[in-house]
Amino acid sequence: MTIVLTINSERHQIDADPSTPLLYVLRDNLKLNAAKFGCGLGQCGACTVLVDREPVFSCLTPISVLDGRRVRTLEGLGIADKPSPLQAAFIKEQAAQCGYCIPGMIMRAQALLEKNASPTQAEIRDHMQTNLCRCGTQMRILRAIDRAAKDMKTADAGTTTGAAR
Amino acid sequence: MLRRILIVVLAIVVLAGGGFLAWAWHDELPAEPRRDASAYDPAVVAKGASLAAIGSCAVCHLAKNSPSFAGGYPVETPFGVIYGSNITPDRDTGIGTWSPAAFRRAMHDGVDREGHHLYPAFPYDHFTGATDTDLDAVYAYLMTREPVRHDVPAPQLTFPLNIRLAAAAWKLLFLRHGEFVPDKSQSPEWQRGAYLAETFGHCSACHSPRNALGAEKRDEKYAGGIAEGWIGPALNAASPAPAPWTAESAFNYLRRGFDRAHGHVAGPMQEVVEHLRQANEGDVRAMATYIASLNGVAAPDAAAKAEQAVKNATSRQWPIPGRETTGSGGSSTTGLDGAAIFAGACATCHHDGGRLPISRPVALGLSSAVNGADPRNLLQIVLGGIHPAPNERGAIMPAFSGTLTDPQIVALADYVREHFSGKPKWNDTGTALEAIRRGKNS
Amino acid sequence: MTKPFIPPLSRRALLAGGGAVIVSFALMRHGLAQEAPAGPKLPGDLSKTPMLDAWIGIDAQGKITVFTGKAELGQGVKTAFIQCAAEELAVQPSAINLITADTGRTPDEGYTAGSHSMQDSGTAIRNAAAQVRDIMLSLAAAKLSIDAGTLDARDGKVSAKDGRSLGYGELASGQALHVAAQPTSRLTPPDKLKVIGSNLPRVDIPGKVTGAPMYVQDMRPDGMLHARVLRPANYGARLASLSADAARGMPGVVNIVQDGSFVAVVARGEFEAINALNVLSQNAQWSDGPQLPEQAKIYSTLTALPSQDKTILDKGDPAQPGVKRLKATYLRPYQSHGSIGPSCALAIWQDDMMTVWTHSQGVYPLRNAIAKMLSLPSDKVRCIHAEGSGCYGHNAADDVAGDAALIARAMPGTPIRVQWMREDEHGWEPFGPAMQTQVEASIDGQGKLLAWQYDVWSNTHSMRPGGPGNLLAAQYLAQPFQPDPPMPIPQPEGGGDRNAIPLYAIPNARVVSRFIPQMPIRVSALRGLGAYHNIFTTESFMDEMADAAGADPVAFRLAHLEDERARAVVSRAADAFGWTKDKPAAGWGRGFAFARYKNLAAYCAIALELRADRTTGNIELGRVVAAVDSGQAVNPDGIRNQIEGAIVQSSSWTILEEVTFDRTSITSRDWSSYPILRFPSLPQSVEVHIVNRPNAPFLGTGEAAQGPMSAAIGNAFARATGTRIRQLPLSPQRVRATLAT
């Protein structure tokens, strides 16, 4: 069965069973690497992507529910030469070791920052608790999210000032 | 609702003219001098710890990122928000200056040491039945906790309930003082269980309907209630669980949060189980015996019926993923085919065998959330998932509130109801979901 | 990626066996020779692979390729190696192309384990690079007929003061680098270092944060199929019957591969393979395996098994009673590597050659094991390292590579990708072994340690391949292979007895290592090996002895430490934490611990504070401060990242983790049954201070914090609650049960 998915603002016709979880379509059909298989059970967050404004576990999201909805993956945020503010903050804070969990971490954090421009430490920790990291980079991940929030505000302020002039 | 509140106001006004004020007046009790933890008998403290666990005191008297009993938990009531108080022995912000008598008065009469009336979100209508000895044990337990300096916000209630005297009026109407007396014709274990469930356990607080003034309806005890947006399922003959509760299954559920004929605990009951794990095991067994008796099914029948329910539910199980994908027809491309959603989102865990031998959930046909007349609990579970307490082992079900749109959640819930319960369709799933999304708790 | 995606063999390999030219070089103190000199040992792994072109290649265009036999596991070694090479070759780091572990191209450096990478490979690369730079200088001197001492090597060329210059590419033509290394090199002096010691950003992070194909999991050559392996529920079970028809008929399924009790399903799509695996599992019957021990009695079961006892330290009379003598037993459960991404491998059997992409820590040993399993000569198997999810030791990486090779062998010409399922990763990986230690010690009238008697019981800490029987799949073939007999890892590094010898000055001491060969639960190397538990024991007991002596724990340690670097690290951590300055807040307790990993790698000390909730049993970690001495710090932020990570990971092990099992199988099979630390339970803060030692040898850092963190938690808990817990983990259940009494 053909299903139309909108992923990182591009429309794709996918020929797959409607119950197929998004994760496998991203990886197999679309050859996108960021979303990772971690548990297939919604326990670790390695497969996290955004659907509309919400972080979801793509390993448990059947493609049948995505008609007319906007899917965003890490690839849609930015590229190595032009990273998004959150990706840039992860690079600045060197917030990765093996990095396997990082795409999920960034996508989950992205959802937070889109809704709450100035999250507190407690809010960040609370929001991120669905995602596991085994290397122990969490302290850096927290710093990166915090830094991205501040960088984004500074950038916004810059834009506003510019416009006022 | 407004009309009822006005009646209360009227009642207060009328009563105020008479002896009400005199009746409602309580003196401040003298401050207790500071005592060292070693002044309390460890055996009494241990007993108090178990009773406090049965009472789940730490649920409401808990601050986020703060030790237990420091208070601050917002208890949402239909009348506003009340914050669990600090009951650590801190002398300024906790109950460090309370004497045993002051503590007993609070538990029995809902009056704090200074003489203020406490709101009945604090279930003194149950604690009033506890014995003095038991209350003294809980007192000893609390007084030997770490004092935590932590101020708790004042209640945010609507007029006239923001006047503490309103609590006194409430008591006049609904509080029945006196030690709980169990049915003496029952076994000692049942009697013990009844005492604990009716006093400290305050089980019926969530499992019974309440009237417009928030008091439990006495004639509908255990007919099912509402707590924090969840249904407290009926425990009497109206219980929605296909497998009747037995003393054994109720014990498994209360103690471990899981029983093979009922599944995993979810919602506000999860925190209750977290505490019951720490209680005296014999006491939890006694409560289980009492709870299992509420449905009126004789014990041997209940066990046989439970086995039959397990069989029935298993026959309705979802086939192993892959053997069959889309089930019940309907157009998959609309995204509203409940079977397709179930296959991709749920069946990885909720299937009938093969892999995942450890934390695989029980057949959905056994779930009271699926079998109940009200779809609310199933919706709550789909929206928020199930998560173990911090750092504990326990079933994890992810939240699907962002994964699925509201119409998809309704389609999924209706499909689950139809496929697994064999009961009549829900016809108000969408309305129930809307209510939860709006944050309406009743 | 199209068909011939197998990377070409290196120039070095093509040249292997060719003659070498002899280059004379004025600046070098020793004449270069064809063979490695028999005299002094060469630096790092140059001693095993002495030819310079095995480490560094320069093509005619001047493109520099550096080869290492070690692998990037997320610890950042690629970046550190590039720094070592760039510094000594006097080029920009971006000019270095680094090739990691590949049996077709790189030196054999064994396993990437034991915090050896910087010591072995980093040292080799740095020295090789310095010697290659000097060869460039001398070749240029000869060509320009000018004194080498007046020349300057920079950015890939050698320049004379008169403006003439020659590129490395021109100079390195022919076999200029096919020469043996010298025992000593002209290393850049500490005050001239530019790249070494700088926080060069990790070269792999930009790709990792933007979704580039960084992992073996992300490889998808044309024609690749997905495979999943059917595993029984319990150890040792054999396939009794299998009906594969239902699975074979499923959408996307291409093949069912079976050899004895090894069964795999191969499908076009990954989800199709998973679905077919589910159906296959329902149509398989397995025999029972051997009964597992009762978990509640695991320590008495293990210590009752026959052991090979070896006294690894024996001085004076450790039975001396002193004025106070204490004794305690400490326990550590089986613990899981718990990689976030289940293990994965890709294999292709093509033109009589088996090529396997793997995140194994040891491509050469794996190659040998796979070759033996498939009855192939070892030169017909090539293992290429590709990054996977972090492994922290010997997880299922080698096993899944064996799976992939077996399936690929059955399907010639087809690239086969295998990834394990979560429940298999948790259930079948070789765990970090359960251990028991017993320590008894006395103090004299001056409050100093007088005697120390220490016993450690442990299984082996390495069941790596090795022989083919150490690959899980090989044990299930129709003609199965048996695992190798377990062997202890000898001192000074040690396995179960790693760090069992205290670094403290104690006049009378005996340490006995009791090696238990029999393994009721599958075990192997987990980060730190026995050091994690031996340091937990030693450093917990040091606090107990400090209390017995009425001494401050930090002062007590300093009173028994003679190594100046050890003292410096202890003092630095204590000072940065404010150990002596202020008191902990009510309810909070402070803990301190120190160790030098393996007694020969990095020094690490940790001070922290925590409090415990008596009702929930939860431990709340406050401020954590660490100090570390890794010798010359190549990349300080890389060291910080490793220590921070180890602190968080060790917190998780120490507070939460325990593999569970019943009499038939492992029951901790996912994150709900094997919880690890989540964000809300992290320490409030972690700060790492580096004690840099310019020009001192590199000291392995990756495992240095694992042990000290556990003991610092145990010690702080004892001070916060007045109760010491000597059995790991300090889980909410155990804390509740302990504090309730």
Task: Tell me about this structure.
The complex is a heterotrimer of chains A (165), B (442) and C (741). Chain A has one domain: Ubiquitin-like (UB roll) (Roll), CATH 3.10.20. In chain A, 41% of the residues lie in helices and 14% in strands. Chain A has helices at 22-29, 74-77, 85-92, 102-115, 121-127, 138-164, and strands at 2-7, 10-15, 48-51, 54-57, 70-72. Chain A has a five-stranded mixed β-sheet with strand order 2-1-5-3-4, with helices on both faces. In chain A, a hairpin with a 2-residue loop joins strand 3 and strand 4 (54-57). The termini of chain A are far apart. Chain B has 442 residues and is mainly α. Chain B has three domains: 25-174, no CATH class; 191-293; 316-437, Orthogonal Bundle (Cytochrome Bc1 Complex, Chain D, domain 2). Helix content of chain B is 42%, strand content 5%. In chain B, strands 1-2-3 form a three-stranded antiparallel β-sheet, with no helix packed on it. In chain B, a hairpin with a 2-residue loop joins strand 4 and strand 5. In chain B, helix 1 packs across helix 8 (165-174). The longest helix of chain B has 17 residues, at 299-315. Chain C is α+β, with helices and mostly antiparallel strands and 741 residues long. Chain C has three domains: 11-208, Aldehyde oxidase/xanthine dehydrogenase, molybdopterin binding domain (Aldehyde Oxidoreductase, domain 4, 2-Layer Sandwich); 216-287 and 337-428, Aldehyde oxidase/xanthine dehydrogenase, molybdopterin binding domain (Aldehyde Oxidoreductase, domain 4, 2-Layer Sandwich); 435-461 and 496-740, Aldehyde oxidase/xanthine dehydrogenase, molybdopterin binding domain (Aldehyde Oxidoreductase, domain 4), CATH 3.30.365.10. In chain C, the strands form six sheets. Chain C has a seven-stranded mixed β-sheet. In chain C, strands 12-20-19-18-13 form a five-stranded mixed β-sheet, sandwiched between helices. In chain C, strands 21-22-23-24 form a four-stranded mixed β-sheet. In chain C, a hairpin with a 5-residue loop joins strand 1 and strand 2. Chains in contact: A-B, A-C, B-C. At the A-C interface, helix 1, helix 2, helix 3, helix 4 and helix 5 of A face helix 5, helix 7 and helix 15 of C.
